[in-house]
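REVIEWER CHECKLIST
Item 1: Sequence provided? yes
Item 2: Single chain? yes
Item 3: Sequence as submitted:
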Amino acid sequence: MLRTISLSKSLTSTLTKMGPRAMSTTSILPQVQDVPCSKLGGRYTVTLIPGDGIGQETSSAVKTIFKAANVPVDWEQFDVSGYTSADDLTFKQSVESLRRNKVGLKGILYTPVSSLGHSSFNVTIRKDLDMYASLVLCKNIPGYPTRHEGVDFAIIRENTEGEYSGLEHQSYPGVVESLKVITRTKSERIARFAFDFALRNNRKKVTCIHKANIMKLADGLFLNTCREVSKEYASSGIKFDDMIVDNASMQLVSRPQQFDVMVMPNLYGNIVSNVGAGLVGGPGIVPGCNIGREYAMFEPGCRHVGKDIQGRNTANPSAMILSSVMMLRHLGLDDHANKIANAVSKTIMGGAVKTPDMGGSSTTTDFTFAVISNL
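Item 4: Structure as written out by the authors:
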């Protein structure tokens, strides 16, 4: 059985509902509701792509916790790897599974740096299914002290164009041209997503990140479109400002508390998400999701494969677990989401079980069973 929504609701229904701004065990993560999903007999079928590096370990943690918490989710797992070719059958099957189920949980797929013609599977999935909005939440977690306190901002990134358009060619030996594509339609779509997110989640300000001082046409179009959209939300009290991306990078590491909702083109969003993750503790704890009109895919917000610690049982599974909590809210399984979110929060606040990235020596397995004991 599919839950469907009208076209007029399709944009607003993708937006998340954070609840109280203060960090609590039940409002750590956003909620996505009223979107299509695959449900049969009271159970949901979700596509699972563990990914490369530590993906198998962190995905295993999620599956173990879901089983212990009796979550009504059945997995269609596809062990896709970024090392395979673009015509790989398993990759094609995973995309078809996502089309069928509408919802997916995914680790990070490796993208070869030197392989000419090898497109990123991460980008391909998001573009093919038009999951145009990337949402990453950067927020301090109680029990995990970092350099900065009071960090709480959302990064909203346009997922389908910009520098990731994949349009490159060598016009002459030793001369490469790479096209950056920015359109008014997609700029307006992501801007409205950002302002609607701010409005629904009691956020006070939206900041457009750009490089319009140099890329006057491309980034200028993105900035001007955001400015035009902001006028429609002025009566709601949401403030709007903009910041050049290099200055934003410095401001993030010096005074991150000034940011609330940040909206930006593709490449800047990738970079800023990594900076944001570093501010609140690293890639192991930052959840994220990709949202479109029809599909939603949840994955760690800081897209690191973790190849260097693969197979060591030392990875922090929090980012994958919390991304799965976002997925549960998306499915309307709030009780299960709250139970697991509470357990993760208690485990971190307790301080007895810490993976190496958190300053401890506990294993991925230790952390997983600690979460289960706190359910």
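Item 5: Key structural point noted by reviewer: The chain has ten helices and 13 strands.
Item 6: Recommendation: ____
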